[in-house]
Design a protein that fits this description.
It comes from Catagonus wagneri. Helix content is 32%, strand content 23%. It binds one DNA strand through strand 5, helix 3, helix 5 and helix 15.
DNA sequence: GCAAGGTC
């Protein structure tokens, strides 16, 4: 029997589609990556009995990047990224082992049916899948077709079966347009980002952003925020005047009337109108009207709308809202949360999800009534052909979900119930009055039937006192007419919800990527989220956008993205050649880039106003090994040391504090060492600013401290302070923290394992001897006389922290003990070693003299 | 260290 491989875009869809096509009779198992499942069943295909294997990828299989050597920022001129630098496709998520997985499942299959999402990205993934799988599939017989594309617009039985019955072919042009998009985004984004970052970070010390990024989506996103900022800044309040009249109604109440002219900007004129109306004692009714109006129930919920409401009503950022929604989805509480669709397919079972809510403590009554009286069909929305609108699938309580998840779930559920409820109907009454020559109006709303506003009370028509019943010609006594002086007020900063709307309107990002772009401009310190989730641009954000405007406004305008997308669509439609469009667009941006580089002084002028030059930033901290002058410690990200005499910058590890380390110097370069420590777990280690940026040994990585330095004799090095292999990670070594006394600690030099060793010891040294059982270095400990834990009056003890019975009592290496060879039984690891020996030479002792030690490291 | 797009 032949085998048909079928591939969907994500595991959840593979399952739903397989369930539909197999009519529920399939057997499933997890694939080798633990994420994707394989669903198998038998059926017929092209008139023959076959075995079906339905599985999925996880989004894109591949991602585009430059060849490794072009990712060295110091070695490559960003201008090269436009053409010279070759790109390669890499596995998007190496942990998933997607290519291998597809090949294992695809081996020996005869046909492949591609069930990827029916958009351009999906079409592109089709070819990524084919690249992986075609080489291992059975060869076709003669001219027989083996590759098929299923096109579907919803995940319903009829649509899926229909797609299966009318298979087509993958569209190469659509896939190519995505290839072009990827290459453009990569080359343009990286070139501008690297240039800006290096240029400004090399000049200013208080920029407070480790990355000054640029991108075709994030930059216009920032642009929207700064545009609003500029409007606020340039706003000039204007004074205006309003007439307000009160009339006394029969019921001994008064009624506030609005002036039909709304407002005037000339005080004299307002005064004139006031004088004229003041003469009049009666207000005459000129007309009355009553109109029945409806407030429409909401459209079914899609991602972008959910994100808007999450931000504006629930105070949840889009990134966080998406994470929460995804959790609700994987736990089965809601349907797939990433969808553009606001329309339920005809066949969608609306009553099922509704019934689920019939006993919910908060809305059981509303739901039961709807079920009894019949639901209202949801309004006709937009069908993007991806997934049904976001729908609650299972009832849940606040206690079950907790906090944030509950609030989002509650909103989703209320919204869903609202979509099948009736519109809110109300009566709008209007009375028009004339007082002297001026007209005034009074409006009132009374609810006829609340409809969906019952389940969405925040949408309800506000309760108002009802208007008096009257008719044309009636008169009321004027209680008071007064003139109010008011001022126009500036707009406020853009809310996140408004930004989402703007992005959607201009086609900046997609439902899945909008949260990412907003998050990016926050993380890069271009904007900060203020109360009410309003986005206030920082100085850096403002200067960047003003700089783009000054040099080349297209770099920040939302129009450039859509112009590029138009070109890409031509590729997709087969009306333009992929190479030509790509080459042409890259050429334009290359010119823009060179112009930007040549004109950067224009942006620099703006930077100068807000930021201080490197030399004027920071506090003197440690001495440079070259000129022996103090270098300044620049705290703003990326934190670093700057020697203004040598004009050199030395990057420091981030997210920790830096202190001078006892004025000790590195034996290799004479730089004064600094002590890096992280707050949370009390980890710290000395670090040479020069070695950390220019590692002296081949096996020392850039950006590391003395605890990874393999200097054979320096008292701060891994060689001297290392004890043994880390208890958790594979490559790390536990290193004594020489500054940690009196509560002595050892810490892994790779992962974040920190272990407490001894208290009440005034000195701890790492001995040159190793443990006979596990090869870890022995510790030589001098305890305080008064508090020594040792038997008798002894204060000194030498032993292995893992194996010595006295030390085992004291050392909090609980985790370590359980996986130590002595307690673990026959294990994989041989000895613990101390990591400071060259690998592959078990049992090799540390060379005793310096020369042979150096020789060992320089081979 | 960089983009934007999928998805987990």
């Amino acid at each position: 029997m032949k085998t048909v491989l079928m591939v969907a875009e994500k595991p959840s869809l593979a399952q739903s589609i397989a369930r539909i096509l197999s009519r529920g009779s399939m057997s499933s198992h997890k694939g080798l990556n633990g994420t994707c499942s394989v669903h198998e069943y038998t059926g017929t295909f092209a008139g023959q009995p076959v075995h079906f294997k339905m599985t999925s990828v996880c989004g894109h299989v591949m991602t585009l990047d430059f060849l490794g050597k072009y990712n060295k920022w110091d070695k490559v001129d960003p201008a090269e990224l436009f053409s010279q630098a070759p790109t390669e496709k890499k596995e998007a998520n190496p942990k998933l082992n997607m290519v291998k997985f597809l090949q294992v499942e695809g081996k020996g299959c005869d046909y492949i049916v591609l069930w990827l999402d029916c958009d351009k990205e999906g079409e592109n993934i089709c070819f990524e899948v084919l690249d992986a799988v075609l080489p291992v599939m059975n060869q076709a017989h003669g001219s027989e077709k083996t590759v098929f594309r299923a096109r579907f617009s919803s995940i319903t039985d009829t649509d899926i079966c229909n797609a299966m019955a009318h298979l087509g072919e993958p569209d190469h042009n659509e896939a190519l347009s995505v290839d072009a998009r990827q290459e453009l985004d990569l080359r343009i984004g990286c070139a501008f980002t690297r240039f800006q970052t290096k240029y400004f970070q090399g000049k200013y010390g208080d920029l407070d952003s480790s990355l000054i990024s640029f991108g075709p989506c994030q930059t216009p996103t920032l642009g929207f925020c700064v545009e609003r900022h500029d409007k606020i800044q340039s706003f000039k309040p204007e004074t205006y005047w309003v007439l307000q009249a009160k009339v006394n109604t029969d019921q001994d109440r008064s009624l506030l009337l609005d002036w039909d002219r709304v407002r005037v900007f000339d005080r004299e004129i307002a005064q004139m109108f006031l004088n004229m109306t003041k003469l009049e004692k009666k207000a005459q009714v000129e007309a009355t009207s009553k109109k029945e109006k409806a407030k429409q129930r909401p459209l079914a919920l899609n991602t972008v709308e959910m994100l808007r409401v999450a931000s504006s009503a629930l105070g949840m950022g889009p990134q966080h809202a998406m994470q929460t929604a995804e959790r609700l989805y994987t736990q089965g509480y809601i349907s797939y949360p990433r969808t553009e669709t606001t329309h339920y397919p005809e066949s969608f079972d609306l009553k099922g999800p509704l019934r689920q809510q019939a006993n919910h403590p908060y809305w059981a009554d509303t739901v039961k009534q709807l079920l009894a009286e019949g639901i209202n069909r949801p309004r006709k929305g937009h069908d993007a052909g991806d997934h049904p609108p976001i729908t609650p699938m299972r009832s849940a309580t606040e206690a079950e979900l907790g906090g944030e998840a509950w609030r989002l779930y509650e909103y989703i559920t209320r919204h869903f119930i609202a979509t099948v409820s009736h519109d809110c109907r109300y009566l709008q009454s209007t009375i028009s009055f004339r007082i002297g020559p001026e007209r005034f109006t009074c409006m009132g709303k009374t609810v006829i039937s609340p409809g969906f506003t019952e389940i969405m009370p925040w949408q309800s028509v506000p309760l108002e006192e009802s208007l008096p019943t009257c008719q044309k010609g009636d008169t009321f006594a004027v209680g008071e007419v007064k003139m109010l002086e008011k001022q126009t007020s500036p707009p406020d900063y853009l809310t996140e919800a408004e930004l989402i709307t703007l992005m959607e309107k201009h086609g900046i990002g997609t439902d899945a990527s909008i949260p990412v772009h907003i998050n990016n401009i926050c993380q890069r310190n271009y904007v900060v989220v203020e109360s009410g989730r309003r986005l206030k641009p920082t100085n850096l954000g403002i200067v960047l956008v003003h700089g783009y405007y000054k040099i080349d406004a297209e770099l920040v305008l939302p129009t450039i993205r859509s112009a590029v997308e138009k070109q890409l669509n031509l590729i997709a439609q087969g009306k333009a050649d992929y190479r030509q469009v790509l080459g042409h667009t890259l050429d334009i941006f290359k010119r823009k880039f060179h112009y930007f580089v040549d004109s950067i002084a224009g942006m620099d002028e703006l930077m100068e106003v807000s930021f201080s030059p490197l030399a004027a930033t920071g506090k003197p901290l440690s001495r440079c090994g070259k000129c022996h002058r103090f270098m300044k410690y620049i705290q703003a990200k990326p934190s670093r040391l700057h020697c203004s005499h040598c004009d050199e910058t030395y990057t420091l590890p981030q997210n920790g504090t830096i202190k001078l380390y006892k004025e000790l110097r590195c034996p290799l370069d004479d730089f004064e060492l600094v002590l890096w420590s992280s707050g949370s777990r009390g980890k710290s280690y000395p670090l040479c600013p020069y070695c950390s940026n220019h590692p002296p040994f081949r096996d020392m990585k850039k950006g590391t401290g003395c605890n990874e330095c393999t200097h054979p004799t320096c008292q701060h090095s891994l060689s001297m302070l290392g004890i043994g292999q880390c208890v958790e990670c594979e490559s790390g070594v536990l290193v004594l923290d020489p500054t940690s006394g009196p509560k002595w600690r050892v810490a892994c030099n790779r992962c974040n394992v920190v272990a407490h060793c001894f208290e009440n010891a005034h000195r701890v040294r790492v001995s040159s001897d190793t443990c006979g059982a596990c090869e870890a270095a022995l510790l030589d400990v001098d305890f305080n006389k008064a508090k020594s834990p040792l038997p008798g009056d002894a204060t000194q003890h030498v032993g292995c922290v893992f194996c010595d019975p006295i030390f085992q009592e004291l050392v909090e290496l609980k985790h370590a003990a359980s996986c130590h060879p002595m307690h673990r039984g026959p294990g994989r690891r041989q000895g613990r070693g101390r990591g400071r020996r060259p690998a592959g030479k078990p049992g090799a002792r540390r060379p005793k003299d310096k020369m042979s030690a150096l020789a060992a490291y320089f081979v």
